[in-house]
Amino acid sequence: MGSPPSTLPTVGTNLTDLILKKKKVTVREIGGCMGPIWPSYFQDCFSVIFVVDSANIVQISSSCIQLLSVLSAEPLRNASVLILFNKRDMPCIMSLTEIKSLFRMDDIIASAPQPVTALEASARSGQGLQEVLSWLESVAVK
């Protein structure tokens, strides 16, 4: 997989092409501040990786509201969804159980029309990224 990429908050959009099991998959990264225009990118989207900054407890509630908006979007009704709790390597963060409780993961999974998976990772250290790629492969080759 190589070394993890440098990490900076996304401002605007970034496109990355991946080859997964000989299939080209385009990943479009859209920054959280771009939330109002996210729906313009939902058409022809087969999966969503929704990244949550788990080191920023103040934003957990607003992230949850944004996620509920994504999950209720009609064009994404059949998309597979991965909720990725990032920055798990940071000191003084809540446990994953506490974050999932605060994020109301059980309620989100129960009410979402799409399949929802939750993983944790650290983009900086690379921890958990192999699981993310495995998830993406599993939904991309359907």
TrEMBL record:
Superkingdom in the source lineage: Eukaryota
The keyword GTP-binding is annotated on this UniProt entry: yes
Pfam families associated with the record: Arf
Keywords noted in UniProt: GTP-binding, Nucleotide-binding
InterPro entries listed in its UniProt record: P-loop_NTPase, Small_GTPase_ARF/SAR
Cross-referenced SMART domains: ARF (SM00177)
Presence of keyword GTP-binding: yes
Gene3D superfamilies the UniProt entry points to: P-loop containing nucleotide triphosphate hydrolases
Protein name, per record: ADP-ribosylation factor-like protein 16
Top-level taxonomy: Eukaryota, Metazoa, Chordata, Craniata, Vertebrata
